[in-house]
Amino acid sequence: MNYSPNKFSQQPTPAGIAPLGAATVTTGSDTAMAIVDHLRRSHLSLAEIRQRQRRIHSEVLQLSRSMNSANFTRLDHDDLRRMAMLYDREFFGSRLLPTIGRERVKFGLSSRMTRVAGKLVTRHGGGRSRTPGLRVEDRPGGQPFSDPRRFELVLSTTLLFQAFADVDRPISVTGLRCVDRLEAMQRVCEHELVHLMEIYFWHDSSCNGSRFQDIATRLFGHTEHRHDLITQSERAARNFDIRVGSAVEFWHEGKRISGWVNRITRRATVLVEDDRGERFSDGRTYRRYYVPLEKLRRPPST
Known about the structure:
33% of the residues lie in helices and 22% in strands.
């Protein structure tokens, strides 16, 4: 699946999203039904939402073994796990994760996600999917089938570390202005928690859907479902005047090599004409080089 810049995870909008109250709960427990009712009816004041978010911000920083400040330079998956548990405590009375099953929810960090700020991966059986597809129907007599799904909530360390760094501009996530990396991390975590709740209780999720946006607004005060974190493409343009299609030079094994930028992720993919290389759609053959942005230079004539 292709992901657009400045989005969390682009998931197809399911046809006919169910009303907020029409959950297909995977367990018949009173706790699960209470959480669904809470998602349907919760109306916290914006002041109360912000107070709880600030409390989480403070405790995550205080309890972390990795973070040295709110603009941290190190991050561990335990920080994300602890953050999710604090959100569970503050907004769900520590009932959400136990209801889903703490052993079924993993938390991860990825440096390979250079455009998407967060994603929720659903695994069922031996496979995995970023979009839901499994419906767990009740057995006759009200006994539920065993729900085999496992979930992983993953955040992009690349996008978090590029915020509040060498590109000086305001940062907004979910429509809310962030003052530090930890606030940006909180907004992404909140967004993915809504995906987790939707997929667990309703078996589908789309941040373009009215149900998702209603929950995100009432629970967390979100006004949008996009992020404005700094991508590598923006860093390349602002700091190095390099874009896709730019002619560039770099040194490799003592030689100065010229080529042009074909792609920008964590590094720039530079195509250099080479008779022994791969043939591209323009009929020419190129060799690929993966070069850190800091190692590239624009030729004097460009």
